[in-house]
Amino acid sequence: MLFRKRSKKPQAEPPSVGGLAFFASLVFLSLLAVNNLVGILALLQAGTILKLTYFAAAAAAGFLAAKFIFRGHWAVFLHELKHSIVSNLAGNRAKGMKIRRSHGHFEYAYSERTAAYNAFIHLAPYFLPLFTVVALLLVYLLLYPNHIYML
After folding, report:
1. CA-CA distance, 85 to 108, in Å (whole number)?
2. Which of 3, 25, 71, 136 is the most exposed, having the fewest neighbouring CB atoms within 10 Å of its CB?
3. DSSP label at 145?
4. Higher pLDDT, residue 118 or 141
5. How many alpha carbons lie under 13 Å from residue 75 in its C-beta half-sphere?
6. Contact 105, 112 (CB under 8 A)
7. Which H or E run includes 108?
């Protein structure tokens, strides 16, 4: 009885393919493809290639930085740094920061006046655009040298 033959269960018929939804999606995808081709042709006009190249280079640099540099301690440090920045902007006093490879902790002392900002401080790493601000400053300084610097 160790090697008992299993009986085959009748398999249900596969669902039918096609129908109105399938053909409607084909029409929609065709229109979307035409729209994308027109958009690509608009991007290829004179002057936009350079901007597209800058964008692609920045996207590649961001991907490589996220993949190889901002891991472990660096990622935790940057996460806790965002808590610290918003906490200090709210007027709290920093008490300490602990950084480990996979987790960290930022401590701060708050008063009754600043207690209302606690939720804002806890959510800061998810909306504070730290790298975006740095990247925009670099782009402004490096790619637009003829503009008046607003420093």
Report:
1. 11
2. 3
3. T
4. 118
5. 12
6. no
7. strand 104-109
